[in-house]
């Protein structure tokens, strides 16, 4: 309400005018105050002036209102007064910050009658009543204190932007940088030591893609020459900055050569990420116990030699014993450092799970994890960086040296706890033993990845196994691999590799652990995938009758097959989910969505086309005489179904030619149509009342070859020429007895079955939503090193290069047994990265 509106509402009589002004002014003041927003201050001032309310009255009114009013704290959803809010967060945030938080983020509690209350005029409370209400509220029992800090921190009310960093061009347009965000980029140098530098950003990032690729002088970190020194920093993970506080961040990055965009020296993260991606279906979990030693400062830039807690006169303290997990002065040396580091890691978002004092004075340990895959290296690297930052103000040095003090003192390790899903599953103990055996075969290769100077620590003493010896055991801290007692007892769990040194590169350690494990389990997975055949068989819509179902099922069982599942899929579902279009993949695409110009016709096929039709393929393409099925129907002025009938009348080798798997070209009237049969074929599956009836079957590969499954059990495409006793031939001969409306032909040949183990996986994923990661053949493909995106791409039956030719992937794998199919898939993948 504006001031002129207020003036118009006041009666003209002097006394009434004065009283009305005061009453209306107070009403406006209350209305604006309840909004709790700073922009109403100007309006409140107008109300004060017109109502002749003193400044002191306004101050008292505001104070009473603020102290009595309750608002919802976003952190907990609890309604609290400003006084209660300040009491709870006292010591954590300043008074002004909490007032900003109260005004900007704490909202009035919602009420069922809130809409009615907004429309109903409220009477102002007298000053005395307001004070009384405030006093009563203050004496009332305070609301339950929230267990956590505000979900929206008070600092966020300062107007910091979030999202993508605008970069230098955006900074140049700002009048002030006061609301900018600092990003501390952290990376590893040539020696595996963390380095960092700070960037001013226009916004707080919410995801890695919001961050800029930066650069630095690699000649000063041992990663480049001075004449070509630029190295790039590519962001990989975001953490909160616990040193500067919100909204500032720390950015974990890895280093790349600017001149060739290859990983810079000591960028082991790239190889680790590839390994983790290759074996991601095993869902690796890691937990690393990082031991470190706090040292007394030596000369600037020189390696420290004396651990914190060792006597000032150079003599050694009492022998090991009381320091491990100890407490008290002269026992737990350096606890303030360990505790502050713990707190800082939690604030940063590092997955730190615990700390404890270690065996030597000044020696501690923090645990990071469980972490999945590549994040183990990311979180441990950031935890190490935070530790180095913490020691800057505690007058000590953090050493990750595997043997920081010679003599009868424990070294410092980086024990790596590890498991994959088969280990955590019931019966996983056998998997743990199998992997331990595999580790023993490559023990020397692992040691090379486990840190420098590790031989000084792995002596066979001080809870270690000798560096040249490999052994594993339950609850044995003197073994290379310790298996927890609980894992043996429960028959599943994890294993602990005790060999990595404190200075190890976590990316190299986790990478080789995963590689050895993956290769060990993959060999078994691939072998299992090659021993069992799984196929998808369905009765086509024209033959879905009870007698046909009985015939097909009895035949499959008689041949020694196990029916894993069966069922009906109706036309409306087939149409709605485009199951038939996905099933026919490339066939459907060539008929409907792809234009002839997008198709590749091999030179040999073009020669055969010219021989058959007497005109060059390039000529008919140039003259615009080639169409897909959809466009061809429009060109001829017929429906897709009518085109399909015309197409069915064509004869192979006379007026229709096969260019490849699912790729046909036929001459219809005066034009050439690609896959003109498809639309008619599709309508058979999607017509009202139609359906298919499927069987998911499996059998040992040694009992029946895939070629025999299709050639003898199923029968060729033409049921009339199929072998006697095959499913297609029996349905062809007994069509009247079975209840079919017409005798089967090449198109309607009764039953379909997968052409290869790979095609079976594609069909089962499409029709019955099978899982690649749970299917034996699917797991074997992944274990062979073929990535998930590539498998899904192949489900569309693309043309791939192989042995100097380009063919349909389905054609290349047709009739191959599972083991052979897996080998060929791996070879094809190698030629088509």
Automatic annotation (TrEMBL):
Domain GS beta-grasp per the UniProt entry, residue ranges: 181-262
Leading EC class: ligase
GO molecular function: ATP binding; glutamine synthetase activity
GO biological process: glutamine biosynthetic process
Skewed-composition ranges (Basic and acidic residues): 119-128
Main location: cytoplasm
Occurrences of domain GS catalytic (ranges): 268-630
PROSITE patterns xref list: GLNA_1, GS_BETA_GRASP, GS_CATALYTIC
GO CC list: cytoplasm
A Pfam short name: Gln-synt_C
This protein's UniProt keywords: ATP-binding, Cytoplasm, Ligase, Nucleotide-binding
Segments of this protein annotated with the region Disordered: 110-163
Biased composition (Low complexity): 131-151
Cellular localization per UniProt: Cytoplasm
Catalytic reaction annotation: L-glutamate + NH4(+) + ATP = L-glutamine + ADP + phosphate + H(+)
E.C. designation(s): 6.3.1.2
Family from the record: Belongs to the glutamine synthetase family.
Protein name per Swiss-Prot or TrEMBL: glutamine synthetase
Native organism taxonomy: Eukaryota, Sar, Alveolata, Dinophyceae, Suessiales
């Amino acid at each position: 309400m504006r001031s002129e509106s207020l003036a118009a509402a006041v009666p003209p009589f002097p006394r009434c005018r004065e009283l009305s002004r005061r009453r209306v002014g107070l009403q406006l003041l209350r209305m604006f105050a309840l909004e709790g927003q700073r922009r109403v201050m100007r309006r409140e001032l107008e109300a004060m002036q017109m109502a002749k309310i003193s400044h002191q009255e306004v101050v008292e009114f505001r104070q009473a209102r603020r102290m009595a009013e309750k608002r919802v704290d976003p952190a907990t959803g609890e309604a609290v007064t400003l006084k209660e809010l300040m009491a709870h967060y006292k010591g954590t945030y300043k008074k002004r910050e909490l007032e900003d938080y109260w005004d900007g983020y704490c909202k009035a509690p919602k009420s069922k009658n809130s809409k009615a209350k907004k429309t109903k005029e409220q009477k102002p409370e007298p000053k005395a009543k307001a004070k009384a209400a405030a006093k009563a509220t203050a004496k009332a029992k305070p609301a339950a204190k929230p267990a956590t800090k505000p979900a929206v921190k008070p600092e966020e009310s300062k107007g910091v932007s979030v999202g993508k960093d605008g970069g230098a061009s955006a900074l140049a347009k700002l009048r002030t940088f006061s609301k900018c965000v600092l990003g501390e980029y952290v990376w590893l140098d040539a020696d595996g030591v963390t380095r960092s530098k700070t960037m001013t950003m226009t916004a707080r990032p919410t995801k890695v893609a919001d961050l800029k690729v930066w650069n630095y002088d690699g000649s000063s970190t041992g990663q480049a020459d001075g004449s070509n020194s630029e190295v790039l920093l590519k962001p990989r993970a975001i953490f909160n900055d616990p040193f500067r506080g919100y909204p500032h961040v720390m950015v974990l990055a890895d280093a790349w050569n600017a001149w060739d965009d290859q990983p810079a020296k000591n960028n082991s993260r790239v190889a680790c990420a590839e390994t983790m991606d290759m074996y991601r279906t095993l869902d690796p979990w890691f937990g690393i116990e990082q031991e470190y030693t706090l040292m007394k400062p030596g000369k600037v830039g020189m390696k420290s030699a004396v651990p914190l807690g060792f006597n000032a006169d150079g003599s050694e303290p009492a022998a090991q014993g009381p320091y491990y997990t100890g407490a008290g002065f002269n026992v737990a040396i350096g606890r303030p450092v360990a505790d502050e580091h713990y707190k800082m890691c939690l604030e940063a978002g590092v997955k730190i799970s615990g700390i404890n004092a270690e065996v030597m004075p000044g020696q501690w340990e923090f645990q990071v994890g469980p972490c999945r895959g590549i994040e183990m290296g990311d979180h441990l690297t950031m935890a190490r960086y935070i530790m180095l930052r913490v020691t800057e103000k505690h007058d000590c040095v953090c050493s990750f040296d595997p043997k920081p003090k010679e003599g009868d003192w424990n070294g410092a390790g980086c024990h790596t706890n590890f498991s994959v899903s088969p280990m955590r599953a019931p019966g996983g103990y056998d998997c743990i033993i199998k992997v331990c055996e595999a580790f023993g075969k490559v023990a020397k290769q692992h040691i090379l990845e486990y840190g420098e100077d590790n031989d000084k620590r792995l002596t066979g003493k001080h809870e270690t196994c000798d560096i040249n010896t490999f052994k594993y055991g339950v609850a044995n801290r003197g073994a290379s691999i310790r298996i927890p007692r609980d894992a043996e007892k429960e028959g599943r769990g994890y294993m602990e590799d005790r060999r990595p040194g404190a200075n190890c590169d976590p990316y190299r350690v986790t990478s080789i652990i995963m590689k050895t494990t993956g290769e060990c389990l993959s060999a078994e997975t691939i072998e299992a995938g090659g021993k069992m055949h799984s196929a998808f068989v369905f009765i086509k819509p024209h033959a879905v009758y009870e007698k046909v179902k009985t015939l097909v099922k009895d035949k499959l069982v008689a041949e020694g097959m196990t029916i894993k599942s069966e069922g009906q899929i109706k036309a409306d579902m087939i149409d709605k989910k485009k199951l038939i279009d996905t099933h026919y993949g490339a066939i459907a695409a060539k008929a409907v969505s792809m234009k002839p110009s997008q198709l590749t016709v091999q030179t040999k096929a073009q020669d055969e086309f010219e021989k058959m039709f007497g005109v060059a393929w390039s000529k008919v393409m140039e003259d615009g005489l080639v169409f897909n099925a959809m466009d061809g129907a429009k060109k001829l002025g017929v429906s897709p179904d009518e085109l399909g009938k015309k197409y069915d009348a064509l004869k192979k080798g006379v007026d229709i030619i096969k260019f490849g798997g699912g790729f046909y070209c036929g001459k219809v009237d005066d034009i050439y149509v690609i896959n003109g049969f498809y639309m008619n074929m599709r309508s058979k599956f999607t017509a009202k009342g139609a359906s298919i009836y499927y069987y998911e079957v499996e059998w040992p590969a040694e009992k029946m070859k895939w070629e025999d499954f299709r050639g003898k059990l199923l029968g060729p495409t033409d049921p009339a020429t199929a072998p006697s006793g095959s499913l297609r031939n029996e349905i062809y001969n007994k069509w009247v007895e079975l209840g079919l409306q017409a005798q089967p032909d090449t198109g309607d040949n009764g039953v379909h079955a997968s052409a290869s183990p790979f095609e079976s996986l594609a069909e089962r994923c499409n029709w019955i939503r099978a899982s690649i990661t749970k299917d034996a053949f699917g797991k074997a493909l992944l274990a062979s090193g073929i990535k998930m995106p590539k498998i899904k791409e192949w489900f569309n039956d693309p043309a791939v290069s192989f042995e100097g030719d380009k063919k349909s992937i389905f054609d290349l794998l047709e009739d191959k047994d599972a083991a052979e199919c897996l080998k060929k898939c791996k070879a094809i993948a190698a030629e088509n990265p």
